[in-house]
Amino acid sequence: MIKLDKNPNILVIGDLMIDHYLWGSCDRISPEAPVQVVNVKKESAVLGGAGNVLNNLVTLGTNVDVISVIGNDSVANELKNLLNKIEISTSNLIIEQDRKTSKKSRLIASQQQVLRYDMESIDDIKEESLNKILNALKSTIKKYNSIILSDYGKGVLTTELTRQIIKIANENLVKVLVDPKGKDYSKYKGAFTLTPNKKEAIEATNINIKDEDSLVKALKNLKEKCDLEVSLITLSENGIAIFDNELTIKPTFAREVYDVTGAGDTVIASIAFALGNDLNIKDSIYFANLAAGVVVGKIGSATATLDEIYEYESSLHKSNSTSHIKTFDEITKLSKKFHEMGKKIVFTNGCFDILHAGHAKYLEVAKSFGDILIVGVNADSSVKKLKGPTRPINNQDDRAYILASLESVDYVVIFEEETPYELIELIKPHTLVKGGDYEGKDIVGQDIANELKLVQFVEGKSTTNTIKRIQNNEAIN
User: Fold this and answer.
1) Same domain, yes or no, for 130 and 172?
2) Which of 32, 121, 122, 213 is the most exposed place for a label (fewest CB within 10 A)?
3) Exposed, middle or buried by CB within 10 Å (0-12, 13-18, 19+), for 203?
4) Same domain for 333 and 277
5) Which listed residue (15, 19, 151, 265) is catalytic?
6) Do 310 and 331 lie in a common domain?
7) Which residues on adjacent β-strands are paired with residue 68?
8) Terminal CA-CA length for the chain
9) Residue 198 annotated as binding site
10) pTM, two decimal places
11) Can you tell me the mean pLDDT for 54-62?
12) Any known ligand binding at 200?
């Protein structure tokens, strides 16, 4: 994957809400009525609706603004505090005095949702609020790479407002991506793309999507009726289907699904982020599929960092070997993330001059000790000091690339120093692995790692022996 290193400016307009959870246990029925009695032990609150799109964008490193309409109530204050925590300005949150800010409360007993109750207003916003949104948009439109309309049908994105937003955006060459709601998509006409799921697309087009032909028909229907640049339908575990001039289905990368909550928010946020990094739509959807693969492997509405997405792609073996070769700064950041994620890091090092079966088996055993195997490779200058002026046979870039292509190796780092101590100090591995010939010797970095593992080499397999056989023109036994 191309590294996405830009921080695009993206505006989100839509229905903000709070997802509120009451967590507890239940071991009796009420004597007052045949209902469960839940002993609530904790509660939590997170941004929901358009707020989850904001969370995803912030996590990816986007510069984000939001425009919405809320009430003048305690829930609104709670919502502002949650936005402040992720450093999003609340200056364009428009207050309607008699409006209830949306809050959805879920009662969870023993990991099962027992009840949900909502407190909210779903009436269309007032004309005064509509005009304030348009004025705020007009004054800042030129700064944005794209606009996401996150429609949850709570009254913010009225038909008139939505049409005006798209008109202003198109006049300023700003892409509008829409997470649609309802059956009538006419108010989204002129958007860059919509992101309905299969069920929503069936309802909006009245086309029963059951095979490729009906899928193409539905995509064309949306593209023509809504005048989209790209027509898109998310297909859950089957990936994302797009139609620009032809049908393309980008497969999903989810390996193990725990929870699909918020995956749609992740998809639209990731597409906008990737487009803001100058990727085309197909590459953007590839990126979004990876991000969705990360979040569905988590419990609850979740987000995916760039490092998690890159790591996930690497784990799927769909990245090239070069992307597994890291600098000191890059491996420091990755290691910190792996520690935070609870991953067990294994480190080993060596010259790995002429790679042979002994090396491969050694590294396979090393990887078995943890989740992430990082290999430190001696730079050419370091090898000469250790092995003499005729070594290495292969230069450091070639050696690193070959190591990075091995299934057992997650990351490779080249170090110039005589020992990898500085590198080990940055990585702070849980497990340090060395060859069996280090038995009883002091090993560099042993004081940093939690444990040391010694792995016996395959008898007769060594770079030195290989070089001697080549020099002596000996046949391989």
Assistant:
1) yes
2) 32
3) middle
4) no
5) 265
6) no
7) 93
8) 41
9) yes
10) 0.69
11) 95
12) yes
